[in-house]
Amino acid sequence: MKDLSIIVVNYRSWDMLTQCLDSLASIPATYFSFEVIVVENSSQVEKLNEFRGLFPQFNFILNSGNYGFANGNNLGAANSNGKYLLFLNPDTMVSERTLLAMLDQAKVSRANSIISCRQLRANGVEDRPYGDFPSPLSLFGWTTTLAKAFKLIAKPLQSDRFIFPDWVSGSVMMMSKMSFNSIGKWNERFWMYYEDVDLCRRAKDLGGVIVVLKNVALVHNPGGSSRSDTEIKVLTKTEILISHHEYISLHENGLKEVLMHALLILNNLVLGFISAIPGLILFSNKRLMVSNKVYLKLINYYFNAFLQDTWISTRSLKHPESYRFRINVDKNFSAIRDDNS
């Protein structure tokens, strides 16, 4: 058994994946043994085979479709052989020192804990890849700013070495495989976004601690496939709003749940309409058209959510209508795979 399994879910982020795998390939297995598992969620078979040739020491898995970040991570974990798991984005670069520090912390942390570290952009700007669980006070940026100004939201506890937030970004997450199975793996009801918040919520409910190491960092340049073209921008911007609703439906109840859903719908429809107006006027501007298309997709989502009594994204395999969608995708993907085999 390896000490660590590093799982990277990729979707056409080949340039960034190259940098990520180069950084991992440069790490000697001196202080710990590790394996790297790359799960490719696209149907680009030829490109994946190219990477198999470039990095023969790593394992590559071609998913049968783009069923989401959670699904890809679970597939990677199911094929892992490490005592500890590190879920890592393809747009990151990591050092041996950072991995060793995280692994050492994971070994001494209580069961069901999740470990992360600081994240820096290539230009040295530091991100804040952690936060508080969503609440009526933190649904939107402006409400969060006001709540913090009036000290209605407490800052996360921290010491000289650690920060203890409610959740950390799924771009960098380490835990023992035993804890991963105990927590219940990644929730595939989420297609993209909030699956990391959901996983941390379940970990904390089981007594785990969410830890960010302050003394080590890695390079993270977010964007990748999620910003590569207009249609993907529309898709990802829509899905983050959809996943917010799904998180609320899973972890809130009663009046609080109703209130949070209602506030989100009101905000998304009213402010979304205002944002969409310029796109209607200047329809040739691709950037403005993104807001327009997101708004139309949201209206369609809300209509079907109430009609089908579910907040789950239609792209999730857990959606009531996903079976037909998956069969069609699998058929098309199988044809592509056969043509390239």
Description:
The chain is α/β, with parallel strands linked by helices. It folds into two domains: 2-223, Alpha-Beta Complex (Spore Coat Polysaccharide Biosynthesis Protein SpsA, Chain A), CATH 3.90.550; 229-309. The protein is built from eleven helices and twelve strands. The protein has helices at 14-25, 45-54, 69-78, 96-108, 141-149, 177-183, 195-205, 230-251, 254-281, 286-308, 322-340, and strands at 2-10, 34-40, 59-62, 82-88, 92-93, 114-120, 130-131, 157-158, 162-164, 167-168, 172-176, 210-220. Helix 2 (45-54) links the parallel strand 2 and strand 3 (59-62). It is globular and about 55 Å long.
Care to give the gist of this entry?
This protein has helices at 14-25, 45-54, 69-78, 96-108, 141-149, 177-183, 195-205, 230-251, 254-281, 286-308, 322-340, and strands spanning 2-10, 34-40, 59-62, 82-88, 92-93, 114-120, 130-131, 157-158, 162-164, 167-168, 172-176, 210-220.
